[in-house]
Amino acid sequence: MKKYALNILVVAVIGLNACQKDLLDPVPSTDIPDFRAFETKERIASQANGLYSVMKHGKFLGGKYLIANEVRGEDFVNEKSNNVTLNASWRMVPTGETQEVKEIWSQGYITINNVNVFLAGMNAVGNQVVGDSVAKLYAGDAKFVRGVSYFSLLQLFARPHWDGAGSKPGLIIHTEGHAKIGNYARARSTVNETYAQIIRDLDSAEALLPKPAAGALTSITRANAYSAIAYKTRVYLFMEQYDKVIAEAAKLVSGSAPFVSPGGHALEADIQKVFAPPYSTKESIFSLPFTGSTDDFPGTQTQLGYYFTPASKPFTGNGEYSMHPNGVIADSSWKPATDARRKFIVQSLGKNYWTKFPTPSPFTDYIPVIRYAEVLLNLAEARVRQTNSVDPTAVALLSAVRHRSDATITYTIADFANAAALLTAITREKHIELLGEGFRSMEVTRLGIPFPAKSSTVPVIAPTAAQYIWPISSDELIYNKLCVDNN
Q1: For labelling alongside 147, which of 65, 170, 334, 465 has CA 20 to 30 A away?
Q2: Nearest Cα residue to 109 out of 23, 192, 9, 31
Q3: How far apart are CA 163 and CA 155, in angstroms?
Q4: Each residue of 459-479: pLDDT tens digit?
């Protein structure tokens, strides 16, 4: 694991200067191993801010992770056949040597280790410097970042929970900071053990962080108790613990329409505004911010706009992926004439492109990590699965999301013959609503359905196939002899 440790050390020492300058104002740390970076309040603030900048790197949640999850699904066509831009993942043939596999694994664990080094420094020095109340806030930031990072990696690199009820190999769990080169070999924990760590982190973040009013920029670009709660509705859904999805959502969602949270979260009336400056809607629960400042936007060939928008003006994308004509775009229930989400589809040179992230180079659109629409749909699905019925509240939640974008549709109980029909409608709505935001591959594996064929050379991938999930990075296998690959 010496190469892995060295990569983390480099980031820990010099990599915290890539955060948003005006919102987070970081400065580089000077010496993590002897805790000099925790000797002043200013340095500690820089370290805390830097936790987010490492997570939003273009090789992780700032771009490539979302792109990988989208192109593994059935909604996009690879136009360039370029392995640098995830052609292997689109074709469902990546190996442990594939660039995106190595980069996402590495950047995810760099993010996790950054948290661990930060928490160690705070416990050793920093807590006394900033005082108890501020120290708790920083710990909450760190726990949220680590929980989100572990969850994200788990969805690509481990079998879904339904396979063996969480007993299959999950991730390698590190909660101690590695700030010096060394051998940190460790075996993989189970999927259930990995989820347990994620929930511990998110529970802790909820307890430590404040509950600010929705809509303020700082309440969207920095973790808080509401973002931890919202994220837990996602985690518990993937864990198939539907009662806990309902319990967490009850902290955020009113019992009847119009659905709002205690902090004022609600669906934005115009879906277009969620993805347009200033990105500070009441629907936005937690987002990753970017600006045009140096090092504060995703790097080359990691940007969503670069991959999914065409080169034609006003866009400056590379048109790496057009929309697959047999993907969700072909869903007849998604009405072209009346659904506002269809406005994200733009034609160029006879092909359709997805422009949910339309800002041209250097591609500074904020990336929503979780927003209120997803929470409503998570709750709707959990209620149906828990009750095995055409649950009236679930119908109302589904209707709220669809009606927001298509005023011609208001669902009623009579629209669904049984619970299965309602579940189909909810999962379809999530497919449409979250398109392009990095969900499709995760949803396919969570639901245990096959990856549809995308061409004559990219066949159906069954849930039992090895390609259903990613292999472990070859770097990890070389330097960590206790780690076993996925079969």
Answers
A1: 465
A2: 9
A3: 13
A4: 999 999 999 999 999 999 999
| DSSP code per residue over 297-325 | S--TT--HHHHHS-SSTT------EEE-T
Q: Residues 108-113: what's their mean pLDDT?
A: 97
The three-class DSSP label of residue 189 is: coil
The letter for the amino acid at 68 is A
Q: What is the overall mean pLDDT for the chain?
A: 93
Give the pair of three-digit tokens for residue 332: 């007849």
Pairs from 480-484 (Cβ < 8 Å, separation ≥ 24): 480/1, 480/4, 480/172, 480/184, 480/185, 480/186, 481/185, 482/185, 482/186, 482/187, 483/172, 483/185, 483/186, 483/187, 483/188, 484/169, 484/187, 484/188
CA angle 141, 143, 149 (to 5 degrees): 105
pLDDT value at residue 402: 98
> What's the length of the chain?
487
Q: Let me know: does 359 contact 305? Beta carbons within 8 Å.
A: yes
Tell me, what's the pLDDT at 179?
85
Distance from the Cα of residue 76 to its chain's centroid:
19
Say whether pLDDT at 121 is over 80: yes
pLDDT of residue 180: 83
- Percent of the chain at pLDDT exceeding 70: 93
C-alpha neighbours within 13 Å on the C-beta side of residue 341: 22
Give yes or no for residue 9 having a pLDDT over 50: no
**pLDDT at residue 34 in the model:** 62
Alpha-helix residue ranges (DSSP H) falling in 27-180? 41-55, 64-71, 87-90, 99-121, 127-130, 132-157
Rg (CA), the chain: 21
Calpha distance 406→433 (Å, rounded): 12
Helix and strand tally (H, E) in the chain?
19, 6
In 192-211, which positions are buried (b, 16+ CB within 10 angstroms) versus exposed (e)? ebbbbbbbebbebbbebbee
Residues 378, 245 contacting (CB under 8 angstroms): yes
Give me the torsion for CA of 198, 202, 207, 208, rounded to 10°. Answer: 100
DSSP 358: -
- The Cα–Cα gap between 466 and 67 comes to 21
Quote the CA–CA distance of 316 and 321 in Å, as a whole number.
14
What backbone torsions phi and psi does residue 346 show, to the nearest 5 degrees? Answer: -130, 135
Cβ 190 vs Cβ 196: under 8 Å: no
Instruction: Tell me the average pLDDT across 185-204.
Output: 98
